[in-house]
Design a protein that fits this description.
There is one protein chain. This protein is elongated. Strands 2-1-5-3-4 form a five-stranded mixed sheet, covered by helices on one side. It has 93 residues and is of the alpha+beta class. It has two helices and five strands; from the N terminus they run ββαβββα. The protein has a domain of 65 residues: Beta-grasp domain (Ubiquitin-like (UB roll)), CATH 3.10.20.30. The mean pLDDT is 89. It starts with a strand and ends in an 8-residue tail after the last helix. The longest helix has 14 residues.
């Protein structure tokens, strides 16, 4: 049986979890998540959003995306309003 090596990455505000896995060839994203012991509904491979049934290739990096706390457009509007009011700048998150 041949194997592929993949990496599962979950980035949180305070830390990142990286798990290296050796999986059977033909494994899918859902198999990698299960083997890493993590859950993720929004996932991607190398920055491109994919479904859980995507077949992985050797060297792939499965990324788990966390939900946004605030819509990026709304956050920019808030910063613009703060600047107009003469408020302090808020650091980007």
């Amino acid at each position: 049986m041949s194997f592929i090596r993949v990496e599962v990455v979950a980035a949180w505000p305070e830390r990142a979890e990286i798990t290296q896995l050796d999986l059977p060839a033909g494994s899918r994203v859902r198999d990698a998540l299960r083997a890493a012991g993590v859950k993720g509904e929004a996932v991607g491979v190398f920055g491109k959003r994919v479904g859980l049934d995507l077949q992985l290739a050797d060297g792939d990096r499965v990324e788990i995306y966390r939900p946004l706390g605030l819509d990026p457009k709304e956050r920019r509007r808030q910063r613009a309003r703060d600047r107009k009011k003469g408020g302090t700048r808020t650091p980007r998150v």
